[in-house]
Design goal:
This protein has 221 residues and is mostly helical. It has a single domain, classed as Phosphate transport system protein phou homolog 2, domain 2 (Methane Monooxygenase Hydroxylase, Chain G, domain 1), CATH 1.20.58. The chain is built from 6 helices and 2 strands, in the order ααααααββ. Strands 1-2 form a two-stranded antiparallel sheet. It is elongated, with a radius of gyration of 19 Å. The two termini are 19 Å apart.
């Protein structure tokens, strides 16, 4: 039976806790960035653009700790999968953070446009994408394979919501009931949310890898 060294157990737990800390910040940024867009809250949007710097810092810190762990502890099998998976997870978390910043920047870009911001389909899509990221992180924390697989399936919901938004915006442009610049921003925000959902799928895939040693259908360990 394999017995982990106390230093290895502690280091792995610290890495997992750092990932959760980074995920909490990213989840906050997703939620608040869309809130800023809906309410045209420019101060909040500025704050979120600056908060992305902290997401980048956390990614760098975790990467260094993970690489130091591999070098120092020389882990095998499931422990190496965990650390390798974490290195992949934080890359996707950082990119999700980038898209939250992108949404905030769209708010700043159209801050002078007074169109009604609350679009039902867009709000539903933001909630779905947020939930996918949250569930993906919970799957990682709990090492829950079924939950990870459900996140991957849920991506179809977000894709369908994106298509509905595109259809709605197209109709509004045809009927001249939406300002073109605002329409473009809504499309961009929807696209960023679609990409957030895609990265949530990646988070779930890397959790599957940590648990099973397979990434998608390819055995890696």
């Amino acid at each position: 039976m394999k017995i982990l060294r106390p230093s290895m157990v502690k280091a792995i737990e610290e890495l997992k806790n750092e990932v959760v800390k980074m995920a909490d910040l990213v989840l906050n940024n997703i939620s608040e960035s869309f809130k800023a867009f809906k309410t045209n809250n420019l101060p909040l949007a500025y704050e979120l653009v600056n908060l992305d710097i902290e997401v980048d810092r956390l990614e760098e810190d975790i990467s260094k700790k993970a690489l130091r762990f591999i070098w120092k502890e020389q882990p095998y099998a499931s422990d190496l999968r965990m650390v390798t998976g974490i290195l992949k997870l934080i890359t996707d978390l950082e990119r999700i953070g980038d898209h939250a910043r992108d949404i905030a920047e769209q708010t700043l870009h159209i801050g002078n446009i007074k169109n009604e911001r609350i679009l039902t389909n867009t709000t539903l899509m933001s909630e779905s994408a947020y939930q996918m990221v949250l569930n993906a992180i919970n799957a990682f924390v709990k090492q829950d394979l079924a939950m990870a697989k459900q996140v991957i399936t849920d991506d179809d919901i977000v894709d369908n919501q994106f298509n509905q938004i595109m259809k709605s915006i197209t109709e509004q442009i045809k009927n001249d009931t939406i300002e073109p610049e605002y329409a473009v921003s809504v499309i961009m925000v929807a696209k960023y949310m679609e990409r957030i959902a895609d990265h949530a799928v990646n988070l779930a895939e890397w959790t599957k890898f940590i648990i099973t040693g397979e990434h998608k259908t390819t055995p890696l360990f």
